[in-house]
Amino acid sequence: MESYNLKKSNQLNYTISLMFESQDIRENINNNYRNFKFYSRELSRYENKFNEIILDVTKCQNELSSNDVIVLNEYIDSHKEYSGKMIKSIDKYNSFSDDIESYIENPDERSEILSEVLKKGKELSNNFVQPPRISSGLSSVIKNLNPQMRTLFESLQKSTLNIHAKNSSMRWSVNNLNILIEEFEIEGKYHGADHVEIMKSFKEHIKNSQDYIDSQKNILLEDGLTKKEVAYIKSNILNAQRNINSYIERIELRDEVFKQHGITNGDDINISPLINASIHDTFDSLTVSIAGFNIIDTHSSQIMGVDSSILFNSVSFIPEIQAQ
What we know:
By secondary structure, this protein is mostly helical. It has helices at residues 6-55, 57-60, 66-105, 110-126, 136-143, 147-186, 195-220, 227-260; strands spanning 189-190, 275-278, 287-290, 293-295, 321-322.
C-alpha cells in the first residue's frame, strides 16, 4: 500500500464518492417527482372535499363562521402555493444533477464547471422551501370542526410533512456533495470513504460467504435433519449466494473507475482478477466464477425463502488526506 501513489488514491476515492453521491441525488429527484404527483392529486382531493363540505350548509352552519371559512381557505391556498414552489425546487435540483453528471463525465472541463456547480449547490441548500404552518388561530378553528372536517385537515398536514421530509433528504444529499467537492477542489483535502480498502473487504466478504456456503452444504449431507432444518439451511445458502452477487455488483461499479485511474493487475491493489462473471438472463442458469471457484448453482432458489442477512457490509473511511 505504501508504494501506491497517494495522489492517485485521493483522486480515485474522490471520483467514486462523486459517482455514488450523484446517483443518490438522482434517485432522490426521481422519487420526489413521483411523490409530488401523488401530493398534487391529494391536494386537489382535499380542496374538492373541503368545498363540498362548505357548500353543505346543513353540516356547517352551526360550526363555521364566515371568518372561519376564510381562514381555512387561506390554509388550503398556502398549500397550493407551497406545491408550486416545490415543483420549481425539484426542477432546480434536477438541473443541478445534470451539472454534476457533466462535471463527473468531463474531468478535463471540471475547472470550468466547478464554480457554477458550487454556486447552484449552495443556493439549493440555503433556499429551502418550507411547508405551511398551522397558526394558533387556524388551530382553534380546526379544533372546533366536526370529526370529518378535522380529519381532512389533519390528513392534509400529514401529507405535506411527508413530502417535506422527502425533500429534506434530497437537500441533504446535495449538501453532502457540496462538502465533498469543496473540500477536495478548494481545500485540497479528502476524508471520505476509502474505496481501495472497501474493495479489499468485498473480496474478503465473498470468500467468507463461499466458505459459509461450503460449510452449510456439508451440513446438508448429514443424516437426521428435519425438513424444517433443511429448508432453513438452504435459505441461508441462498442468502449467502445473493450476498456474493451483491458484492460482485459493487465491485463492478468501482472496478471501471479503478481501471480509468490506471490500477491494473500489476499494481498493489489487485482488483481486476476478482471479477470473472457470467450472469445469464435466466435465473435458473445463473453462474458466477469468483477467484477460481464457481458459485450460484440454485435451481430451487425461486421457491425458497430468505433468512436474515448473515454478512454485513463494512465501509472503511480514511482520515483527512491532502489532495496534492
